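Researcher: I'd like a structural prediction for the single chain below. Treat it as a standalone chain; there are no partners to consider.
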Amino acid sequence: MVADKIATVLQSRTPRNLSGDHYKLAAVLMPIQERDDGDHLVLTKRAEQLNHHRGQVAFPGGRVDAEDRGELEAALRESHEEIGIDPAHVQVLGRLDQVTAAYDFVVTPFVGVIPPFYEFRLNPAETDAVFAVPIAALLEPKCLTIADHLSSHGEPVYHFYCDGWDIWGATARIIVQFLDLVYGYEIKKI
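Model: Treating it as a single chain, here is the predicted structure.
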């Protein structure tokens, strides 16, 4: 079961935190579904009317509110608000390194397994679509391209093109980190 492998990898390391008082805290959940046809990452298309990251592909999540008891609670709360994932249905496996995102956000990604088939409930104020991408497809070298320029934070700009979706920015950097840690993924220029 891939969940055991992921949990072992994530719990055997100390995730890296970014420092700086100017960052706004955010957290996301990387939901994984273990299906008969392989393991899938669940992603969303953010609503077009949002102020930040509108229309982009992302993991469910958002800003850490003062009422949240930390980043994990924020990731689970936002996942429930955006696409209806009940926190009780998430088996949290661990945490990845923090990444930066536009507008001076620092994002804490958590990895969790959810049931293989889920009745998502989209909040139209926040989410236009929810979809799942096979991890096997993301591991294919032809799926990833690297832009010729760096992000505003000086990081590579990755684009995963999969099933008609363009997955890029902080979300793509989170996926690269996850694939590297769990699957030994190496970026190959093609």
